[in-house]
Input
Amino acid sequence: MSVATFLSDSIAVAENEFRQFRRNRSAILISLVVLPLFFTISLGAGQGGAGTTFSPTANIPIGFVDNDNSLASLRLWQTLASSPDFHNLIQSYNEQAAISELGTKHIYAVIVVPKGFQNDLDNGNQARLILYTDDSEPGLSDQIQSTLTSYAQNFNPNVEVQPHLSQLQRQSVAGVGIVVKGAIFAGFNIGLTTVLAIVQIFAAFYEIAGGISREREDGTYARLLVSPIPIGSIVLGKTLFDILLCIIRTFTVLGISVYGYGARPNTDLLTLLALSLIVALVTMGMGFVAASLKLGQRAVVIIEFFLILFLFAFSGLIIDINLLVGITQVIGNLVPFTYAFDALKRTILLGRPLLSLTFDLEYLIGSILASYALAFAIFHVSRERLIT
Amino acid sequence: MKSFVRDTVAITGKELKQLRRDPVSLILTIMFPILLIGIFIVIVSAFSATSHNVPVVVADLDGTPASNAMINELTRSRFVQVTQLVQTEDQAYQAVANAQVIGAIVIPQGFGVALASGNAFVIVSTDNSKLTSSTFVSAAVNQGAQDLVNQASLGGGVNFRLKLAPIDVITRPISGRPPSGDPILPGFLGMIAILGGFDDIVNAISRERERGTFPRLTLSPVSLFAVYSGKMFATVVLTILRTALMLVIFSLYGLVIRGNLILIFLTTILIAVFTLSLGLTMSTRIRGSATLTVLEIAMTFPLFTLAGTTNSPLLLAPGGRAIADSLPWTYGNDALRRLIYLGAGLNAVAGDLLILLISSLILMPIAISLSKRTM
Output
């Protein structure tokens, strides 16, 4: 068979896919609108964009009980109340009553200044603040504690108006400043790496594996398989069709991230598009393997759900691979998406040229070739069985 | 009324019988909790490992006893592993830029002298594309500096004439749990109820539609309300089973459940019923079971962040918080946390439960009405 025939068959398959896609309103909606919009907007809203600077503790109602009633405790109150981190500080005179309010959603923490606070400071001893927290709110206690500690460590009882805390002071231990260097990522850049990868994985797997399963359930897949079109053309045609959808999705996610949430990727558009397509191709390869195993549509969707959950734990999306322990780290190092996320972060966040990430690229391309070869072999066997 | 109850029970029985005959769905009902908990264990064990060995290089440009003491603190750290001591600042930064290490710690010249006057500083450069590891490097340096200060103030080792921070903050969580406890398990219970509810609606309506049995069911002498009630009760039964399974796993994991078990079951049931009501409404427009499942899964993932599963909604950006406040699931997860961790009573969670109930009561008639129209 000539290359021209092979390509024309592939294009015919791709055209057929487009025709079917155009006729399916819900597929268009989910693939091109719901998934990119939903993931980007929900993550953007949660993290805040480039124009949003917010202190997580600023609007949380926190009780303040002053049992010392001294000049130092008054200055501490003034320091905290006038800071950008504690806008909702509520003064209370009864420690027990304030603590009993915890867990009722009226207040989420109580700062208690114990008796002898000023004495300790005057005598050069370390004074204490007691922070009662509603720890049923995950992450809240740690956040309030670290913010309060940064103020406490830099508090000078002899100064009426405490200087505004710099970022350096916030991160430092009294006596030793810690100057943090390293790339600071603009706005929604981290969100962009996550959303771009997740949206492509989610959509590409469903389109390839789900599409073939649907055709199988409709009975048209067997006909396509026994037609004179080579399996390679079928696979290539479906891949071409999905590549176009992936390009549209990349631009949608990128558009919302850049214009909606102020993401400023440190790489060029071509690199971003290339990486996005590599992620999609890895997923498509897996989708073809899943489809070749004759799974039903529902099974495909369930596998997809488990795949995404799996990636959250094992691919460096939430925890860096080097922090995983034992066998989980081995699994993480085997998953191709680990290298895809790594490449996305290094290019979008750090601005590394794509071609300098040789190992990541080699592993990803190897995975794509391996999964396509495996799917091709299984399709070939099933075609032989169908014919005989 | 009697016939309504009888019909409802009959439909509930049918749903459960169907599930028993469908091994994939049955396994899924059990697999959801186990898989989620498995992921939780992976994440928690990564964070609570006794040592992390995040690779760092150190450049000591001071070469004094004080800088040596700082390096000693860093080599003792459970967060980082000092892989190399380099001579210059540039070498240290280059190691980070080349991805050889995740962090570079530079102790500048004059560190020892500045330490005595309380003006010392250390430079930390991290590969911030490694989002979690880079925070461990900062934590190690912070801890090292704190230990150095503590050691000096206690008169141990070399005396650098340092003073402790003027104020120490002592944190007391009201639940009495250790601060590094298991803060996301109740949220996972909520997620199981949501995922289960979505899965049930796909089984209950969409797949029946695909098989062609749903129109037959609605044409039988059973009211549509009884059909939906029956399907809802089946979900209630399944939610009770899922919740019980999760609570057993929690107990095996060592989580102390303080609240009233009946209230916990009631909360998960209300979460599932609300999810089911929403799913019913969606299923009137989206007919295919696979399409509906994809859409529901796509909705579920953002809920991990927005509905307070892994983090408190109070810590979200203002836009995210507004979304969180408008989602009834947020109130369900909130109630579960209060019940499980704080042992709260009915009056503490009544508002949350009422929001879930009212939301379901609003959605259910809409779902029935839309369903009638699209039949």
About this structure: The mean pLDDT of chain B is 82. Residues 2-44+180-373 of chain B form one domain. The first strand of chain B starts at residue 54 and ends at 60. Residues 224-253 of chain B form the longest helix (30 residues).
